[in-house]
Amino acid sequence: MGGVLEQVSLIDEKEWCSLWSEATFMDHLVLIDGHHLMYRAYWAIPRTLRTHSGLQVNAVFGMASMLLTILKHESPDALLLCFDAGGETFRHQEHAAYKEGRPETPDDFYQQIPLILEIVDAFGFSRISDLQYEADDFLGTYALAGERAGMRVSVVTGDRDALQLASDAVRIIIPHKGYQEAESLGPLEIEKKYGVRPDQISAWKGLAGDPSDNLPGVRGIGPKGAAKLLQKFGTIEALYGHLSDVPPSLRQKLEDGMEQAFFCQRMAQLVSDIPLPLSLDALSLRALPSARLFSTFQRFEFTLLLRRFLELLVTSYGSRVFQKLRIGSEQQLSLF
């Protein structure tokens, strides 16, 4: 879903009114960093997991398992998976070395991506990607859209860039041990853990850098030092406007790294005003295709997930968002 967007424009007041009217019946919007989730799934499940025909499905199984757990734990009314399209985004165009140096991902991970997308579609979930933007940019845009429409928003990701999205209505959920020990962070938890507010995250990364994105920041200033500076000055702009108030040894580092600080801050800032390729209403979870998901799990020989799926279907939440499923007695006996 989602073609290349030709331009970026602010969402106008008329569109926000439309978003509000669409979302009035929905309470909880869950946004998922699809690439992060499937990458975690690949490393969480042994690569030896295969079907009887020899098809490797460890990442597929792990992804499906976490999606079931998210449904169970979060009970979303609307859900969207955002994926990186794999092309050179505007950040790569500005910074040729952006994200270079990351460890190579094995080929058997990429070979499973079409199967993972098949699982996502079997759930009936909406998904989106675009060559011009990263998944994080869509997370930011939809988080803001959901918040402004009066929804409670949960953003499932392991990327610290997303911390800047946290607010009274938006929480960042970092999966641990699949999704069994997920960490939920709001503004207070983020400030306690990192020493900065959500609105200071891009400035914090501008000063401290981010090795995962190959952003150097200011040489000699780490995360703790960056947090202390932002606690005192608030922003990078204010910091560089008051360098005379900084100790000489630290001042020299900041002067030498000023261009990098502002550049890395810009690279870390998420786009949050992309025209919505899918409306909030299109993300709602209604009459999800239970038979299609059941048959897909069967084809991949995910017996354990079939049992969990049937358990979910009989809950009040499962019966509300999924179509009623009718299976034969022989199929039921094969599962238990």
Number of domains: 3
Tell me what portion of residues adopts beta-strand conformation: 5-15%
Radius of gyration from the alpha-carbon trace, in angstroms: 22 Å
Arithmetic mean pLDDT: 86
Q: Can you tell me the CATH class of the largest domain?
A: Alpha Beta
> Can you tell me the CATH superfamily of the largest domain?
5'-nuclease
Structural key phrases:
alpha/beta, 48% helix, 336 residues, elongated, 3 domains, DNA polymerase, domain 1, disordered N terminus, 6-stranded mixed beta sheet, Rossmann fold
Notes on the structure:
The chain has 336 residues and is of the alpha/beta class. The chain folds into three domains: 13-194 and 270-283, Rossmann fold (3-Layer(aba) Sandwich); 198-268, Orthogonal Bundle (DNA polymerase, domain 1); 290-335, no CATH class. It has 17 helices and six strands. β5 (170-174) and β6 (183-185) form a beta hairpin. α3 packs parallel to α15 (303-313), α9 (201-208) crosses α10 (223-233) and α9 crosses α13. It is elongated and about 75 Å long. The two termini are 37 Å apart. The model is unreliable at 1-25 and 95-101 (pLDDT under 50).
